[in-house]
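Morning, I've got a small favour to ask if you have a moment. Here's the protein in full, and shout if anything looks odd to you:
***
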Amino acid sequence: MSILTMSQSYHPFPHAMSSEDADSDIDSDSESDKYTDMSLDAFSVASSKTSIDVSMRSQSPAPSVFSATSSLRAQAYRQEYGRGLNNYSEVYRLPADDEELDRLDRQHDMFCKAIGKFPPPMPEIMAEDEFEVKAVLDLGCGSGSWIMDIAREFPNATTVAVDLVPMQSTSMPPNCRSEVDDINLGLEHFYGDFNVVHTQLISSGIRDYQGLINHIAHVLRPGGLIDITEFPFYFTGIEKTSICPPAGTFEPPWTPLWMSYANRAVRQRGGDADASLHMHRWVCEHPAFEDVVYREFWIPLSPWLKGNDPNSVWWNGIGTTMRDDVKAFMRSGRPLLLGNGLSEEFVDQLENNAVAELDEAITPVYVCIQNVYARKKP
């Protein structure tokens, strides 16, 4: 199957560009029309073994002025069980439609409050110097909230977002571009190009997460930062031990039960559901990395904490947002569960029970968000 690589940057107003850029710009109506009826297979194969180069992009991470036409964007999606899924990966089966992107935007805001936008070393690494333009890569960018925040916070850096569908933002910062690629096929075309590589909650779509960490080691420049965040595809009780009901179970607690079925479906698709449990060791054991830091954040799935002390009130606020996120995630997970052979009646009842449990906010359930960051050795 051909995999599309698309560099995308929106320019709602006229802007200055070099003559070289002008030659490659595809914003005009005539040029856009030329691509409207073309198959992706009509484009020439890129130098990277991972993709087809639609944009004829310059060497990473230089900015691109390619604007995706609606027909190219449409080829990136397909409809399954009433949701819009990417059209390129059989591993990652969560939607990429507007409803899912809205969920990811709200999740990003919550994570910024609960775990921070980026690790402590990032400002030092991104400090401007006379030797290079700093560059940031976001693998599995989702809605693009994180990478666009970084682009605005570091306006002199170049930022690149990679996912299975193009970013949909019409307000993309000028120093940010979007590329469509299946990162399971490799990152050789990015080797040596970036000061920071970020991933967040992408393990369900990754076949070999340890291999991905090795690719990131090669993508980073000396002294660069790897920043990876995942969760273990199970929820825990108040004792912070996993709740993993056996297959065939249909009894409370319902929210952990729903996640147990999602866990099995991810494994069946080839995703690395256990990546968060091993990524600290994988980074520690990799010879390219030093100064490895592991952090975990225990977030309540609903506002179930008792007490009116400031800490409980604050975490219940986070839990309220996480509850909304989990309910939306269960809607997004329907194609994953239904595609794994569960009946619609079973999935509906399971989801309804879990939503009622979350709304009651009585059952104490946590999700553990795990983060590892490290520096590449000089």
